[in-house]
Amino acid sequence: MARWLVHCRPGFENDCAAELGAFAAAAGTSGFARAKAEAAHLIFETAGDAAAGFDPGWTELCFARELWPVHAELALPETDRVSAVLAALPPQARAFSAVRLEHPDTNEGKALSVFCRKFQAPIERGLKAAGLRIDATLEKGRAPCLHLFFIDSRQALLGFSDPARSAPWPMGIARLKFPRAAPSRSTLKLEEAFLVLMTEAERARWLVPGMSAVDLGAAPGGWSWQFVQRGLRVIAVDNGPMDAALLESGLVEHRREVGFRFRPARPVDWLVCDMVEQPQRIAQLMGDWLEQGFARRAIFNLKLPMKKRQAMVAECLVALRTRLPQASVRAKQLYHDREEVTVMVADPGGPS
Ligand code: SAM
Prior knowledge:
This protein has helices at 13-26, 81-88, 107-129, 187-197, 200-206, 222-229, 244-248, 279-291, 309-323, and strands at 2-7, 31-35, 41-46, 66-75, 95-96, 98-102, 133-134, 145-152, 155-161, 212-216, 233-237, 252-255, 268-273, 295-303, 328-332, 340-346. The chain is α/β, with parallel strands linked by helices. The chain folds into two domains: 2-172, VC0802-like (2-Layer Sandwich), CATH 3.30.2130; 187-346, 3-Layer(aba) Sandwich (Rossmann fold).
């Protein structure tokens, strides 16, 4: 049996559990989740041990913000928490690329964040005094990241993750600063999508000045703004008004047209879409554009006002993967997403 600590958006515990169950089944094992509504985390227990096929990486799951296998459950005496952590480390532990102190992303959990901040220096001092190295540059050499998930200040789960397979931010939360010049807060979704759904090499190849994009449901222009910042030209399709300063950049052409009917005169590098519509209709539209060669790659949101959100996302992803078998289809509920997930479809081997 292996236990995993899984972070998710509060309210999406059941969707996260359903996705983990499906992942376990596909890996030839089974598991069950212990989840409380609105807890922003869950424990997933697999029937076999961790090596028996169930080893999801952070990018392979949509609803999990971060996950790692639990090594030990710790009782932490108030007088000496550091010694309790040291005693629970495996004897072969030598070095960590990071020490992450975590808590549930809930209102109650936020109170624990103060405790976690205060405990960071003492635990790192204690680890170093015990001869362990903590060095971010070891991440490339894949020294494990040490995680402590605090249930409260006296109980924690201890675990380790491979930095190449886990989220680059504590608890999978990408804290991005809202750029004041951006026309809407939505801009953070596309900025986070670029960071989460693409590799550094892909960003360097696929977000290049002079490239072109179509933004469906663009107003007031937060997503278009992300492209303009990177020197791309954008056709912004929306009946609503676009931000005046963004239009003054000279890189945006505003078309007051219906998003479902619009097609560009020439193929574009990017299609993005934030229209509030049924997820299947959006997936169908994205599939049409990519299949017919109107865009090389796409990023779009699937809005999820329904009950069975994980089933809906799975249905849309299967439809896209079936239509575009060569493409890489990646999906994540981003930190800046609400009742929605963000999907990218790209052919990693395709032209840049
Ligand atoms: N991504 C935008 C930003 O960053 O500022 C916000 C988009 S907002 C969530 C959704 C937009 O989709 C609205 O401006 C709405 O007018 C537009 N929209 C919805 N259905 C549409 C359709 N069928 N055709 C064109 N635009 C549509």
